[in-house]
Amino acid sequence: MLTADQLIGRRRLLVLTGAGMSTDSGIPDYRGPGAPARMPMTYQDFIKGPEAQQRYWARAHIGWSRMRRAEPNAGHRLLAGMERDGRLDGLITQNVDGLHGRAGHRNVIDLHGRIDRVICLDCRSISSRADLHSRLQGLNPGYDQIDAVMAPDGDVLLEETDTFVVAPCTACGGRLKPDVVFFGENVPKDRVAECYELVEQAEALVVLGSSLQVMSGLRFVRAARTRGIPIVIVNRGTTRGDDLATIKLEAGCAETLAEWTGARVTVHSQT
Fold it and tell me: Taking the model in full, what pTM does it have?
C-alpha cells in the first residue's frame, strides 16, 4: 500500500487547512482532542441588537489583544515554501487568523474571511481591525487586560460584559462586525465558486488540521472524491470526511509536512 507522500508524489496539490493548522501558533481549535465545548455567537444572535453586539465585542476585544500576536508556525512556512516551489495548485483555509499570508503564502482563499478586517453591516465599508482596536482601547481603558480563557474564534470566555462601550462605524455610525463568516451565515457564492474551480484543477487534495464538521469545507472533499483524485487527510482525531479519504493520517500538520518536504523543523506551541 502506498504511503501518503508516495501517493502525493509530484502531483500538484490543493490544500485545505483548518484550526489544527494554527494550534502550534497558540490558537486553540474547536474539536481537537481535549478541546472544551464551545458555543460561538451565531450571526442571527449578533444582529438581534446592541446587547448581543456589546457581548461579542467585549470578548473579541480581549481576544484580539492576544490573537494579533500569534505568529506563523513551521507548517505555515512549509506550505509557503511548497507554493514557491510550484507544488500547490491552491490553498483554501477555513481559518480567519491570516497566518498563511503572514508566512509568505501569496494565493490564499480565506474561506471564512479575515479577522483582521471589519465590515459595517449598514454601509458595507471595510476597515482595519487594528484601527478599531485602538478606538476600543480609548473607549475601554484597560479592558483588554482582563484575564480570560482564549477561544478558537478570536474571542475569550467572559460573562460580565455590560460595562463595555462599543464603537460605531466611522463612515455611517452603523454596526460593525468582523469580516468573517459567523455560524449561521453563508460563505459568499463567488468565493465558493473559486474554491470549486481549484478542486477541478487539482491533481490531489490534502486536508490539514480540519475535522470537516461544517459543510463549508466538507463539500470540497466530496467534490474531490467525485473527481476521483487522491485525498489525504491529516488530523488528530476523526473527521467527517474520513470515509472519503484515500489515506487518513493521525498526525500533526507541521511534522507531516516536514516529512513530505524533507525539512528539519522544531515545533513549538506558543502561548
Answer: 0.90
